[in-house]
Amino acid sequence: MALDDPHKRPSEPPGADRPRPGSAADEPPFADDEVLPCGRLLSSVWEEAHDAAPPPDPHTVSCAHCREAVEGLATVNAATRALRAEDPPGLYALADRVMDIVRAEVRLGRLLPLADPDLDLRIAESAAAKVLRQAADTVPGARAATCRLAPEGNGTDVRVTMTLDAALDRPLPDRVHQVRRSVLHSAGQDLGLAVTAVDITVVDVLEPWPPLGHAPATGGGT
Amino acid sequence: MTVTGTPALLGAAAEAALAVPGVAGLQPRLGHRLAAAAAPTRANATPHRTPPEAGVRADRAPDGSGWHIEVRCVMTEGRRALDIARNVHDRVAATVMAHLAAHGAAEPVTVAVTVTGIAARRDAA
User: Compositional bias (Low complexity) at which positions (chain B) (predicted)?
Assistant: First the structure.
């Protein structure tokens, strides 16, 4: 194929317009342009093939060299278009970066007032929830699943709504009470949030680990 | 105060906030982060390198009577967020007022502080 050897020159060029080094007038329009074995410039053949408007040159229609060159370039052209469609120069990467940033901003959640009614001090829900979940997790047999916070009223009051996985080795009300105390303590001590209520819903059973009453498997022939 | 003075004002406010014990860093505002993402060379080379003042915003008060400063910061574990936020508020307000006075443009200043994250100590180190 013609593209394999871009510096190939015709051994017997028909016509007198063979490019000669140093002769500016005969230089092809592009530095790396190629003269096909039939004497035509690759660039003009490609332009002619690419441009549907002018009537086709009888030579390029019948010439095997021209046809081969155009077919080769058409393949490259199709591949380039496919690649460009796949990732218009960095656009998808840009979109990913923008979406990552937007998601991070959304993950901050709503802004909640810290417990100083005189100053404009706020904390992102995600930051506060992380601390309160950790506080719930300090209670043995309890693990916070979700934690949402919402301002209540017009002041600095905040209401916490938490879902919990809890073990059943102790009465649930006791454990929930412990979690509530831990969350309230952390809200005041670690954050400085005026939490007025902690609504807790136990949504799943926390399996004790290692499982109680399950001796390691002894059978199996080993 | 002119617009050309604003970067210096933001820089002074950011410096004051960062000097408060318990402040791990300032959280760049959405606009800054999007601008950094859209600038391919900067985004590729240093995706998270935004200047600290990107975490501070300074606006004229709606009635034109002074400045309203917003600071977004990430704090370290181990101190009460409210206390750090109060401290940031006080120091930023004092610094900005001093900055304005030094430039012959003493005006009222209000400061809002938002805690956007609390970093574990090992993260903040």
Answer: 34-48
Q: What's this model's pTM, rounded to 2 decimal places?
A: 0.66
SS3 A106: helix
Query: Which segment of A91-105, A191-205, B6-20 scores lowest on mean pLDDT?
Result: A91-105
B124 lies within 8 A of chain A by CB:
no
Residue A175 to chain B, least CA–CA distance (Å): 26
ipTM > 0.90 for the complex: no
Residue A174: pLDDT band by 50, 70, 90 thresholds? very high
Fold of B3-124: Alpha-Beta Plaits (3.30.70)
Which among B83, B89, B116 has CB closest to A127? B116
Alpha-carbon distance of A204 to A165, in angstroms, equals 5
Would you state the structure tokens that stand for residue A18, as one six-digit string?
């063979």
Domain ranges for chain B, please list them.
3-124
pLDDT, tens digit (0-9, with 9 covering 90-100), for A125-144: 999 999 999 999 999 999 99
Whether domain A111-205 has CATH 2.60.40.10: no
In chain A, which residues fall in CATH 3.30.70.1350? 111-205
Residue type for B94, please?
A: A
